[in-house]
Design brief:
Number of strands: 0
Strand content: under 5%
Shape: globular
Radius of gyration: 30 Å
């Protein structure tokens, strides 16, 4: 466990190399060598992060602190709304004592979270900066992985027996496309949802657009539970800050959820990973049961890799069996004139025997 953070950095660097791989290959096709194309892509990424950080990090820290100071007010606003909802629920026969306990617990939890965040504003800022530094390390590691990835793959192919090298090359290429496509699909979903969430909040004139949208995008990286987590903060802000528009906000978020989590995600996963959408959902559920959130994230590419290995095994072993050999079985056809009733119960052969 002491080396878990370091291993995670290398794993993330490996995933980043999958994401940026197509850009490097396009530059190579344009005439640049491997080192020049890799350096160009990563320099552009560093400049993009630096430019976004100059504007985004101060705004993100500022909005985080403002959100922490506003949590007690948000809790009071929710208490007022909860009273209205409570009256409606009581009219349907739900016990008042149970509703009162739930509302008090929720308000106390929100106020305590606000106090913790406000008291640790410096720690939050330090954690954000630490995340930026770790991101730079991930980029540095992934740069070297990208630079020497082909050489490493060639070494693995050389170590394999000669008759299996073609199969190994095909399997490695498919694994490369699977992981790269899966990671790119996740990032596209997160970015699209974050931008859509920000647009809805801007139109509804809700506060804390940047921090809430970033959190929503990060939540969308978590399969199954991510969409449910992502929709809660803007709904709470809408309920308190713009109660007259809450139905419009809720319907817009629901439409965004359906478009990203059900339509876009399914199509991207099935095309990039190369498995049926039902297999995608099954892999997410099984992975989350086995490995928690990380198991849910990596369940789909692992299922795809198992499918790739199974297909290679099928083509290499099963199709070589006598059952699949050409001419192993002959179809016997007879002339219709020969299909006459046999008056001899034993037949000529039987008489001879």
């Amino acid at each position: 466990t002491r080396f878990a953070d370091i291993l995670l950095l290398f794993l993330l660097a490996w995933l980043v190399s999958f994401v940026l791989g197509p850009l490097c290959r396009r530059l190579e096709q344009a005439g640049l060598n491997r080192a020049s194309s890799t350096a160009t892509v990563y320099l552009g990424v560093v400049l993009l992060i630096a430019g976004g950080g100059v504007w985004g990090i101060p705004a993100l820290i500022d909005q985080t602190v403002q959100l922490s100071t506003s949590l007690p007010d948000l809790a009071s606003g929710l208490e007022i709304r909860a009273e209205l909802v409570k009256g409606t629920l009581i009219s349907y026969g739900i016990a008042e004592a149970a509703l009162l306990d739930v509302s008090r617990a929720a308000i106390a939890r929100a106020e305590s979270v606000g106090t913790i965040i406000l008291g640790n504003a410096l720690s939050i800022a330090t954690a954000i900066l630490d995340g930026v530094v770790r991101s730079l390390f991930v980029l540095l590691f992934s740069f070297y992985i990208m630079l020497d990835g082909d050489r490493f793959g060639a070494t693995i192919r050389t170590l394999a027996p000669s008759r299996y090298r073609n199969d190994l090359s095909s399997a490695l290429d498919q694994v490369d496309r699977t992981f790269g496509g899966y990671v790119r699909s996740l990032l596209v979903q997160a970015i699209v949802y974050a931008v859509g969430n920000a647009a809805i909040m801007v139109v509804a004139k809700l506060p804390f657009v940047l921090v809430i949208s970033i959190l929503a995008g990060i939540a969308m990286l978590l399969p199954v539970i991510g969409p449910a987590i992502a929709v809660v903060p803007p709904l709470v802000l809408g309920l308190v800050s713009a109660p007259g528009s809450i139905w419009w906000i809720a319907l817009s978020l629901l439409a965004l959820q359906v478009a990203v989590a059900n339509v876009l995600a399914t199509r991207l996963m099935s095309k990039s990973v190369g498995v049926h959408p039902l297999v995608v959902f099954g892999a997410v559920l099984v992975g989350s049961r086995i490995g928690g959130p990380w198991g849910a994230v990596f369940g789909v590419p692992i299922a795809a890799i198992l499918a790739i290995l199974g297909r290679v095994l099928y083509e290499r072993v099963v199709t070589k069996t006598p059952l699949f050999r050409s001419g192993s079985y002959r179809t016997v056809t007879r002339d219709p004139d020969e299909l006459t009733p046999n008056t001899d119960p034993l037949g000529a052969t039987g008489m001879q025997q």
